[in-house]
Design a protein that fits this description.
Length: 91
């Protein structure tokens, strides 16, 4: 599962050929959540409230890039998911 972004200790990842609806996985310490790209709803797992706010702010900022990465992952293009900058300006 490629990591597409990293910020404030949060790892954002996508599975290749994953099931719809479009989503990503957010990891922070022992917390894991599956987050819908379009709405930001957490459908599986949980994140601490502060981390949840960071992930939501990041999702809103990079929603177009997330959908592009989702479409590439859905096609199995593992080498080209790319990196999306984090809230701290790093990828």
């Amino acid at each position: 599962m490629p990591t597409i972004s990293w910020f404030y200790g949060i790892s954002i990842r996508m599975f290749l050929n994953d099931h719809p609806p479009p989503h990503f996985h957010a990891y922070y310490e022992s917390s894991v959540a599956q987050v819908l790209i379009e709405t930001g709803e957490i459908v599986v797992g949980r994140l601490p409230p502060r981390i949840r706010r960071f992930v939501e702010r990041w999702r809103r900022r990079y929603i177009a890039e997330l959908m592009d990465a989702w479409n590439r992952a859905e096609r199995g293009e593992s080498g080209s998911l790319g990196r999306i900058p984090g809230l701290d300006g790093q990828s």
